[in-house]
Amino acid sequence: NGVKRYLYTSSACIYPEHLQEETDVAPLKEADAYPAYPQDAYGWEKLISERLCMHYMQDYGIETRTVRFHNIFGENGTWDGGREKAPAALSRKIAIAKLTGNNEIEIWGDGEQTRSFCYIDDCVEGIYRLMQSDFTEPINLGQDRMISINELADMIANAAGIEITKKHIEGPQGVRGRNSDNSKLREILGWEPSVSLEDGLGKTYAWIEEQVKGSGLNMSAGR
Predict the structure, then answer these.
(1) Can you tell me the distance from the alpha carbon of 163 to that of 32, in angstroms, rounded to the nearest whole number?
(2) SS3 sequence, 22-80?
(3) Are residues 186 and 144 in contact, defined by beta-carbon separation less than 8 angstroms?
(4) Maximum CA pair distance of the chain?
(5) Phi, psi at 26, each rounded to 5°
(6) Catalytic residue among 15, 34, 37, 42
(7) Is position 8 annotated as part of the catalytic site?
(8) Comparing C-alpha atoms, which of 77, 70, 73 is closest to residue 119?
(9) What is the DSSP string of 172-188?
(10) Using alpha carbons only, what angle is made at residue 105 by residues 101 and 108, rounded to the nearest 5 degrees?
(11) Which of 110, 113, 109, 143 shows the shortest CA–CA distance to 126?
């Protein structure tokens, strides 16, 4: 079809599980991907597809770009149904808490697991810059500010203007800790994400609160 340049959206899930077993982890560099040992099938799927892109470029000449996302969030994303990411899920829970007056929210695990979160506007800008560049190797795209899920919940509650009580329950937590090393991003693109987590969460929460209001969710159930 004459495609000259192809973007593959990979994931930080390609990184070895043993590098992500503590909350206070070293940021993940692109070179950490090998020797390969992702946590689950999703990580293997992404890593193998990265290799396919590399071989297509070598064998057929199609220009490929590979970006490893680190927890992208923002408005107009999935916020309900079980497939949403932590910022959206917590925003939904806190919006319901605000609208019902029941300020207890559930958090999977002890809430001390750590991540970094990148606002969608920065993600789009990073993709655009990568596609304009001549860089063909996989590259991280995310914020390098690591926080706990408990801290994330408190930030969203602050955006909502309420105080919350956290109820920690059993549930999937993924790796214990993960953060992005943005050294290569700065070196290659001369740029890095600039929207603060507080600003991004404020915009995202406001949008999700409006969705909750208009969704007909069973508020009495405290979903």
Answers:
(1) 39
(2) CCCCCCECHHHHCCCCCCCHHHHHHHHHHHHHHHHHHHHCCEEEEEEECCEECCCCCCC
(3) no
(4) 60
(5) -70, 140
(6) 42
(7) no
(8) 73
(9) ---SSB--B--HHHHHH
(10) 170
(11) 143
Computed over its alpha carbons, how large is the radius of gyration of the chain? 19
pLDDT tens series, the chain, 223 aa: 888 899 999 999 999 999 999 999 999 999 999 999 998 999 999 999 999 999 999 999 999 999 999 999 999 999 999 999 999 999 999 999 999 999 999 999 999 999 999 999 999 999 999 999 999 999 999 999 999 999 999 999 999 999 999 999 999 889 999 999 999 999 999 999 999 999 999 999 999 999 999 987 655 444 4
Residue in this structure with the two tokens 């507080």, named with its chain if needed: 198
User: Do residues 145 and 114 lie in contact, with contact meaning Cβ atoms separated by under 8 Å?
Assistant: no
pTM of the predicted structure, to 2 decimals: 0.93
Question: What does the alpha-carbon distance between residue 185 and residue 178 come to, in Å, rounded to a whole number?
Answer: 17
**151 secondary structure, DSSP code:** H
- Residue carrying structure tokens 């190797």: 137
Q: Distance between CA 43 and CA 120 in Å, rounded?
A: 22
